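Moderator note: this is an archived Q&A kept for reference. The question asked for a predicted structure of one protein chain; the sequence and the answer are reproduced below.
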Amino acid sequence: MKIRSRRITYLIFIIIFLIITPVVILYAAGYRYNFQKHKLQKTGILILKSKPEGANIFLNGELQKISTPARLTNLMPEDYSVKVEKENFYFWQKTLPVRSRLTTFAENITLFKKNLPIELSSGDIPLFSLSPDKEKIAYLLADETEKQVWLLNNKTGEKIMLYGTTAKEGAIIKKIEWSRSSQKILITVSEDSHPEKYIIFDYQAETASTYKNLDEFYFDFSGVKKKSLKISANGDLTLLKNSSNLLAALDKKNRDLKIWNTDNDRLVFETESDGAAWSKDGNKILYAKNFEIWFYDFSADQETLVTRYSKEIKKIDWINDNYIIVLFDNNLRSIELDERDQRNVTDLLSLGDLRDFGVDPEKQKIYFTGSVGNKKGVFELPY
């Protein structure tokens, strides 16, 4: 090869090197050419985690090669329609922004399984209470002649009758409550022309005691000190203690929720409410009022509206720190708390008669009372 030809070849390679090297460096650094905007842009990252794992991911309708948990890199800055789905589960979908040089996170995705209820106990059950440790259910079994309070062990399936009364006795069982220790059960009984009486069953000691006035004992039963907590004498009181020093006193009859700091006996929050529940970490209180669902975050000192309904909210609770569950109009519905785009809402159960429920987040089960088809009783719904 002639010297002139060699020089031309060398020059061509040098030019190619000078062109390709910056392109390779920019590509490795995460830059891509945006053909829509006709400019070079630094890409972004999208991180997705779901429970359960192994869910398919769709970006703008296109199936990705990777499943959850996933780190999707080199994405052009834009808003992406993200869909996460797994067979036999309800899908999750949201529009998320991916920005240049930034990482967008969606790490708290819960996919709810499509399951059918499992019957645990049969009969007409107007009252129901799941123990705080989620291992036992106390419920009222009623018919035209007799009312009985039963205890169901969720682990073993064992059933024990705790208390019974006949229609002739004229007694009304108004309330069933658990102590915070999940060891004792309080049954409130009202009789014709007699004041209410309170029957305390100690589950472990297998003993029962009857009281005509709880007063201080009621507070001890709930694991709190009374101090100067002022509740209406005509109220329907429920005490909800969080994991630290806050006590929620819910007066259902007067629709009043007060939250006290038990260390200094100071009222820290008050609102109208028909029902309330503490989050697992004890930092947030979830409450329903006037067809609305709210939560107050004490760590951030912030009140947030979750949603509104046109029908009565019968009960609310936490599924986990990022999802809640609501009972209204014989429907059980989960609601995502992530406010970006739209909250994911899933109808978990819809029946002709759905009365009450309790959630076991560890075992991922919902226990409820009502009717499934022509069967009445206590049921379990794995999710």
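Archived answer notes: DSSP finds two helices and 33 strands in the chain.
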